[in-house]
Each structure stands twice: as C-alpha cells, then as structure tokens.
Design goal:
42% of the residues lie in helices and 19% in strands. By secondary structure, it is an alpha+beta fold.
C-alpha cells in the first residue's frame, strides 16, 4: 500500500488573472532551489486547417531562431551558460515553451522567454533552413516504426479530422508554407486569454506576476476555436506493408475527455491492463508466451474526446495470437468484476507513479498548466489521490463495457502484414 504523505500540504498554490486576460499559476515548493516555468499557448495541431497543418510546430521551432535582441546561438546559450535549460514542445492541443533554472535566475529566464515569444524575427533565411530541419524530423519519424505507427493510428482513428493529422505536418506542406501564413497564425493565436504562465518550485508568485506584466506583450484576445472531436474515417483498418521483420500494431477505442469524472477509473483500468511490466497484457503476451518484446496500453485525453488503446511489436507469425490474447483479456474485463486485490494493486501503482512525478518541478508545472487550460481550476494531489481511492470494481466493469466495443475499434498495422492476417481475429 502507498502511505499517504503530506506532499500537497507543503505546496502553496496561487493564481492571478491579469487585466489583459493572461493567467499566471504557481506552486511554491520551499524544499527546492529550482524553478520550472512554462509559457503555454492554448493552440495545437488540432486548431489547424488542412493548409496550415504543421504550422504550430514550425512556429515552435522558429521562435528559437533569432529575435530583435538575440541570435539563435545566443538564445541557445542564454540559460545553458547558467546551468539551466530552454525547450519547447507542440501537442495536438497546446504549445509550451519551458525554462528550468535556479531560483536566482528567474529574471533572466523570463527575459529570454519573453524575447523569443514577443520579438522573434522569423527571417526568410532562417525559415528556409528550419523547414529543412523539420523535413528531416519527419523523415526520421517515418523511418522509426515505433514512432510512425502513432501517426498511422491517429489517421485511421480520426480520418480527415484535424486530430488525425500529424503534428509535424507533411513535408510538401511544410516546405511550401508561406511566411505570411506563419506570421498571421501567430497574430491570430498567440493572444492573452489563450496564454497560461505556469511555474513550480522556489518561485515567488508576486515577483513572477510583475515580471510577466513588465516583459510580455501579447495582443489581447482569444485564439481561434478548435474543431469539435468527431471520427470521420471511412475505414477503421490500415495496413502499411514494408520490408521490416517486425510488425507494429496499434488498436484503440473511443475513450474519455480530460474533463470526465471517470478519468481516474480509466487510468486504473489502463494501469491494470497495460501500464507496466506487471500488467496483464505484458505478463500474458511477453512473459508467459514470449510473443512480443514491447506491449502496453495508452490513454489519450483531449478536451472533448479520448482514445483507449494498446500497442505491441511482434513477429509476423505471432501477430494474430497477440491480438487474440489482447481481445480475450478485454472480454474478461467486460464480463467479470476484478477482485479487490487486483484493483488495489493497480490503484497503488497509479498513486505511486503520480506521487513520484510530483517530486519533479517539471511534472508539477505541466500538471498545473493543463488543469488551468482545460479545467480552469486547480486540482491538488490530495484531491486526485482521493479520486483514485474511490475507484471500485463496479466502475471498472462499467467503463470496460463502455470502452471495448469492437464495432468501434480502429486498427493500424505497420510491417510485413496484410488485412487477411486478422480477419478471423477481429
């Protein structure tokens, strides 16, 4: 059993909404000497139309390539030279620019972050170079099957909906994207009411708010809305054949939105089924049968939808058997309540993973920001642990029956395989 600890009680949460609509949320942790800051823009690849696909990620790259005050090299060295780090990422729903520094370097970090976000030059020369870099990133993804299968599955599951398009975009689209489109996209979406500044660690909320007021200059307003989630796929099976020896398979079902009251039940179900080496699928497929090296389940939570699925990599001859075993375990979850012992073990694992994550200022910052962006409120660790404790066998049985409907399944396969291999399985 996980012993409850007072981690949440040692953290001081604060939130401020500036007059222009920009939000600042912080968790002060007295026991550390570092701060992780994230500037979150409530815009991701699902906000793009077909002509814009890849622009959100391209902008994330371009903001590091030079400003009115710093060259790309100076940006790269700005925090590394004082032992810190500067990074960014783009997801389906958000873009985040992060800095991790010692608390004494807070002003420097804010100065650098505000410079790249408000003063980027996006010169034509740098744009040409960075488009080439992103095309190499796309090629690298497509030549890494365990990465590429993610995009294949998203396309299979969501079809022509923006959630089905790759975050990186397509090479032709990226190369031919006009500079004017990129600049306009920033102006239309990098707006105050769609920006959340989140910080965790040895941070003074009052000082951070003042620095944000002094340094950041975004247009007032809201980013453009996203397209509501809807599966618009004509085909829920995709088989892409190549000459590799190994087959990579994703299959998944409609899941839950980030805001769902059943979120902790879904996470417990995921933990039991494929959340680690002790999970049911890992034990059945890898440890007992030796049919695959990698087996896990996954949960994608979006604002208004989600996916519950599984991934495995195996030899061609083992694929039907692996899928058969996986689906058999899903049927068991639909028919029989899990024992209290199995549920308590899954809940203990989930709580332990969550508590360990909360010892990282980066993890805390991300959790803090996502709660504000999607829920509009703070969710303490203590409250989350209580929600996990409430998960019951009835909840698990109900959610398994809601999720695992094979009329809703989507399957993506990459490797030396074809549709006939699974025709008698699913």
């Amino acid at each position: 059993m996980i012993k409850k600890r007072n981690i949440a009680d040692t953290v001081l949460y604060n939130k401020s909404v500036l007059k222009n609509g920009l939000r600042v949320v912080t968790e002060k942790i007295p026991s550390v000497h570092s701060i992780t800051i994230g500037i979150w823009i409530d815009i991701g690849s699902r906000n793009e139309d077909i002509a814009e696909n890849g622009v959100t990620h391209l902008i994330e790259h371009m903001l590091f390539k030079g400003t009115k005050n710093r060259s790309a090299k100076e940006i790269a060295a700005s925090l590394e030279s004082i032992g810190g780090s500067l990074n960014a990422f783009t997801s389906k729903e958000h873009t985040c620019y992060t800095a991790r520094i010692l608390d004494e370097n807070l002003e420097t970090a804010i100065d650098v972050l505000s410079d790249i976000l408000c003063n980027a030059t996006l010169t034509p020369r740098n744009l040409i170079k960075e488009k080439k870099v992103i095309c190499e990133e796309i090629v690298e993804t497509e030549e890494t099957p365990s990465d590429y299968i993610h995009d294949i599955f998203a396309s299979t599951f969501w079809g022509d909906h923006p959630l089905g398009r790759p975050i990186l975009g397509q090479q032709d689209n990226v190369i031919n994207m006009p500079r004017k489109l990129i600049i306009n996209y920033i102006k239309e979406n990098y707006k105050t009411s769609s920006v959340v500044v989140a910080a965790s660690g040895s941070v003074s909320h009052k000082k951070l708010v003042q620095l944000i007021k002094d340094k950041f200059d975004f247009p007032v307003g809201q980013a453009k809305p996203f397209t509501p989630a809807k599966r618009i796929a004509d085909n829920n099976r995709t088989f892409i054949t190549n000459s590799n020896n190994q087959i990579h398979l994703y299959f998944g079902y409609p899941g839950l939105a980030y805001t769902s009251k059943d979120k902790m039940t879904a996470l417990t179900l995921h933990t039991y089924l494929g959340g680690g080496m002790s999970s049911t699928l890992f034990q059945k497929i890898r440890e007992e049968k030796g049919l695959a090296y990698t087996v896990y389940t996954f949960l994608d939570f979006y604002r208004d939808a989600g996916v519950f699925g599984a991934y495995l990599a195996t030899d061609k001859k083992n694929l039907p058997r692996c899928v058969e075993i996986s689906l058999k375990e899903l049927v068991k979850l639909k028919k029989n309540r899990l024992s209290s012992d199995k549920i308590e073990k899954a809940k203990a694992q989930l709580k332990g993973h969550l508590i360990l994550g909360m010892e990282s200022t980066s993890s805390r910052m991300s959790r803090l920001a996502r709660s504000e962006l999607v829920l509009g409120k703070y969710s303490s660790l203590k409250d989350t642990l209580k929600q996990i404790d409430k998960v019951s066998s009835s909840d698990m049985l109900r959610l398994a029956n809601q999720f695992f409907d094979n009329s809703q399944i989507a399957i993506a396969v990459l490797g030396p395989a074809d549709a006939n291999m699974l025709k008698n399985v699913v």
